[in-house]
Amino acid sequence: MDGSDARPQAASPEGQTDLELEAVHARIRVCTLCGLHASRTQAVPGSGPVPADVMIVGEAPGFNEDVQGLPFVGAAGRLLDTLLEQIGLSRQQVFITNILKCRPPQNRDPMPTEAESCMPYLRHQFRLIRPKAVLVLGRHALERMLPGVGSISRVHGEFFMRGGVAFMPCYHPAAALHNGGLLNDLQRDFDRVRSYLDRLLPAPEPVSAAPAEPIPPGGGPTPAETQAAAADPTEQLTLL
Ligand code: URA
User: Fold this and answer.
1) In this model, does residue 220 exceed pLDDT 70?
2) What is the CB < 6 Å shell around ligand 1?
């Protein structure tokens, strides 16, 4: 042995990000910032790779998530998996989390104070995941992440650029389980995310146009628009 084996290895940037995300999740698991810690079985920080092109943000863990410690593992999660598969994505490729990391009793709506306590965790996850697109599922996530843009029924399927990241509100899969009429909308909205990623992921184009916001249905932002949005210091960064 020449002694060099004993030297500490420098962690790769990816490794450091993994460690930082795990540290955030460890803090979430012991969090007592709001009253929900008293009734939870366990916290549900989120799951998926870091970094990830796509981040999905739901409302709060339900019964199954609270038991398993993983997001979207019940009926709504199975529909989410199907929607992802239909656009060529697997759960292993996307980062999934919620506004609230702990289950509200009887799945009641999140209270504003609970969401405020929890938002710093989501912001930290967002900075580490560095998504290109964020799917905002349901009205509670919409109110928190894109306040003031309009109701979910009006703005679902539109892209909102924030700091160069495309945020798309969609109906919550649980809502589509109750009202089958929403399923077509959900599938169309997921298709738009696929088209957006397809245009975004190849080589970036030069900046040529200022972004329009929101983008009307039928045409998501081009890579050039996304770059322009990233460079625009006037954008309101609600989540960041
Ligand atoms: N509904 C959500 O909003 N999140 C989950 O994790 C499960 C169901």
Assistant:
1) no
2) 58-62, 65, 71-72, 76-77, 98, 174
